[in-house]
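Continuing from the previous page of notes. For each protein in this section, the sequence appears first, followed by its structure tokens. Read the first protein now.
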Amino acid sequence: MPYLTTLDDWREAIPKVLDVEFSELLSAYEQYPRCHHQQYRARLWECAGEPDAIADPNGEVVFDIDMDCAANGVIGPLGSRIVATRRLWFPEEMRTGVFIRGEDGEDAELDFNVQACAACSEHPHLYADTGLTTVFNFSPGMYELVVYAGSDFSESLSVHLEPF
């Protein structure tokens, strides 16, 4: 989607990225409770549907993200960043490390957070990559992994969910 967008650009992009018609999104958005942080309102559609990965309390789970502006499921560029989201299911309470590695197998130089899928009024947990730790205590349920990279970033990433 171009940096300067029109309403027609949004009408075309929304079904491709979120798999929902633009009019449905607007209707549901109007009914969603006001949030303290506007970006949380996006949880309405980003958390809907089947999980992209299911965490395993007994072993590592690995999945890939094609982090490129032209890849399906990647939004952007938005300003100077591109964004990818994936739904994660945690079947039980578990302490899990979230590690994102680049094609070279090393930690990728990017930012991410993991947000519980819940209404803003429920004050959903937000776990962020602080640079110090990426090991978190998750309650059972659906979460959204949000990965941010520079708009010129183009790499296949592997996301590792490792129980601790």
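Done with the first. The second protein uses the same format. Note its length before scrolling.
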Amino acid sequence: MKNASLITTIIALLVGAAGGYFIGNKGSQNDVSGNEIKNGNVISGSGPGSSYKPSGSSSNKDNASTDSSVVSVDGNLAAEARRLFDSGDVSGALQKILNAPGQMGRMEALLGFVKTLDADGVETAMPFVRGMGRGGDQFMSMGLLMGRYAEIDPERALTYVGKQGGMERGFGTSSILRTWAASDPRAAADYLTNNVLGSGGDDWMLRRTAGSLASEWAKQDSDAALAWANNLPDEVKGDAMNNIVEQLTSQDPLEAAKVAMGFEGEQRERSLRTIADQWSRNSPEDAVKWAESLTVEGKTQALEEAVESWVGKDTDAAVAYMAKMDQGERDTIMKEVVEQWGRKGAEAQPEAAEWVASQPEGKGKVDATGEIVGQWMRSDSEAASTWLGGQPEGDAKDRGISALLRDRSVREDPEVAVAWADEISNQEMRSEQVERSARSWLANDRAAALEYLEQSNSLSAEQKTELINLSPEELNRGGDRDGRRGRGRPF
């Protein structure tokens, strides 16, 4: 799991969108200089590096759609923003787009506007983007501007962002290198190796940038990309290698597997898992057969990825396959498979729960019970608690109760939570869960909680005394139950 915040993930997606747009609409700087903004009909931009032509001009007529009465709202918005920009109102130009109604329209208009800028125009716009409050508008604007700058002159763009500070420098460098890599991966890779790696910066962003460069290079020359990635520092090498394997898998999974088998240790295991994951999205049964044939470390993880996808596409076939597996192997992947099964929705969860209940006792059943109860509680807490209450005592039910106790509907009714915790057969786990729920109960309804503690056999005398002596501030973990008393009770 990547240690990245949600906002960082959004940044990466926006950067990828920017780079993909500019490469998809690739043209030289001169091409753009006279080009129009194309969004249905043609509305062109003016200013540095381009010549504005109103919608009635001959150039516009040559490139417009056959229905000249249809005018693109996004194109009009981009053209109006360009007119404001040329008049010196840079902030007004950007706000014209970013404050317009319609998210997709704003994005398309911003793309069209940025496409008309030359290098000087990008640098003129950047201070205003820099002054925006942090958020989606700033990240999108900055990503598109840096992608555009990279399309015009990547080395100049890198020099420019290198003089900036903080987020702009790291984010801008990554965005520029990704865009550059789509047209000249070797040059972008050389710059990353010689000027960026080892100079500090956000580790996750560096790994993602190296991975993106490797992916782009692999599309054009996988051997050269592998040779480059193999010599990278360890902190970024894994992501680069894995992205190459991912790219190869999209073209030829078996060829990707040959490459992965040439790796060693953790890198090979990670790559095998990547192949299984990506391959199984389109051909899960083929991916399962391949994973099953492996004889190296990483087989179980690869098989897990493949069966997970299979259960999402054809549950009956995947379950039939798992029935033939060795129990030890099945136990290893059961939780993840049930997790995927449960994600199919409320209708699938009861079936998944019954399948889990039918499995032999073991770690797989224990883990899978906790997983399916947790999911089911979020969609139908009454049905989930009723099913769990009917399960036999043992480790699997204990794990299910622990999952149930984490659900908000139960946490908000500490009396019910204590009743469930008392059902746990493992003494240590029962004591821990009862104590936790009793704290909330004492804060909510001290008299009723004290009555329970007086007769409880789940807690020691020492635990009871410690709970009773806690101050209201130490106990308080939430307010009243809003009429939810008794919800999900196990009896």
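What the second structure shows: The mean pLDDT is 83. The longest helix spans residues 6-24. We return to this in next week's lecture.
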